[in-house]
Amino acid sequence: MTKSCIDAGTAISVMDLFTIGIGPSSSHTVGPMRAALMFMDCLPAHPLRVQCELFGSLALTGRGHATDNAILLGLSGYRPEDVEPDRISDILAAIRTDGRIRAGSATDQWVPFDEAHDLLFRMGEFLEAHSNAMRFSASIDGRKEPFVRDYYSIGGGAVLPGSVPVSDDTPLGHNVVQPYPFSSGAEMLAQGEANGLSIATLVLRNEGAWRAQDETEAFLDGVIDAMSASIDRGLAQEGLLPGGLKVRRRARAIHQRLRLQQDALGPAQIFEWVSLFALAVNEENAAGGRVVTAPTNGAAGVIPAVLHYYRRFVPGADRDGERRFLLTAAAIGFLYKKRASISAAEMGCQGEVGVACSMAAAGLA
């Protein structure tokens, strides 16, 4: 556990915590894709050529986390929440075959791009501000010096430009005034008791500092639908996951077995179903499919698994209950984002599901 770089008094929204993107990593895939798009959007003119240098962890482990693919997609104008996973391989193949890249999705202008020379992994080199660093440069017609920008992928798909100093004391989030602020579990419970509000309602009222309630609910519905779709797709796929380890997908076969036991729904079967749903999302994430960062891609299967179990097996389950679950889960996520940072690798699958089940009980009670 490490200290968070979000100030305890800074407001965080559910839209910061839950973001729709692609696998396999929020910091190594989603963040770099957004950074590449941000760079292309801020160019002062059509570039003659673009180049990206990766530093620190992005250079050392980027190929295994599809950072190279993410950079190419972002430079081409694709957003993590919009790009169709089934089209990604064709998009990348065209870039690598033709040796050119579209200068953003809303243009017919193309830029020469030689991946071996224009996407550089600076192994063992670090930028001082953060370990997940990127440096983009573009040659612009009429300018003697290249247009250069640095970006940092700080986790959860969030990106900071190089003009913002990054440290343990960097305040991230929003400078808004929430009606029921809290930065610890004790404060959260005290706010709920003092105002007669559930945890989910506290979060929903706080979201009103940014937008109307129907807008927040529409966002939550989109997240719920994306989570459900990632499970459905994960249960339908088979074959090997990308990479050299030749790991075979297991979710479909397990699903077929559990469907034969559905009438015998005891405690052991409940755990198996929740674990299956989480596995389906995790396999989609590993394959570069669409998942919801919640709050990282490494933990992307946990919340959808409990949500899907609630929808499928709990009598009286409805959309309002699904929203309450996400809002309650978000409240717990805010505390981690403000007070600590936990890598998904530090928790075993049983521990993750146990945490998720606790949050589900709080949100759906």
Task: Outline the structure in words.
With 365 residues, this protein is an alpha+beta fold. It contains 14 helices and 9 strands. The chain has helices spanning 14-17, 26-41, 56-61, 67-75, 85-98, 115-118, 185-195, 199-207, 213-236, 251-259, 267-286, 302-313, 319-339, 349-364; strands at residues 19-22, 47-55, 100-102, 110-112, 119-121, 132-140, 147-155, 158-161, 290-293. A 5-stranded mixed sheet has the order 5-2-6-7-8. Strands 1-9 form a two-stranded antiparallel sheet. Strands 3-4 form a two-stranded antiparallel sheet. A hairpin with a 2-residue loop joins β7 and β8. α12 (302-313) packs antiparallel against α13. The longest helix is centred in the middle third of the chain and has 24 residues, at 213-236. Mean pLDDT is 86; it is low at 1-6 and 342-365.
Topology (elements, then pairings):
Elements: H1 14-17, E1 19-22, H2 26-41, E2 47-55, H3 56-61, H4 67-75, H5 85-98, E3 100-102, E4 110-112, H6 115-118, E5 119-121, E6 132-140, E7 147-155, E8 158-161, H7 185-195, H8 199-207, H9 213-236, H10 251-259, H11 267-286, E9 290-293, H12 302-313, H13 319-339, H14 349-364
Parallel strand pairs: 2-5
Antiparallel strand pairs: 1-9, 2-6, 3-4, 6-7, 7-8
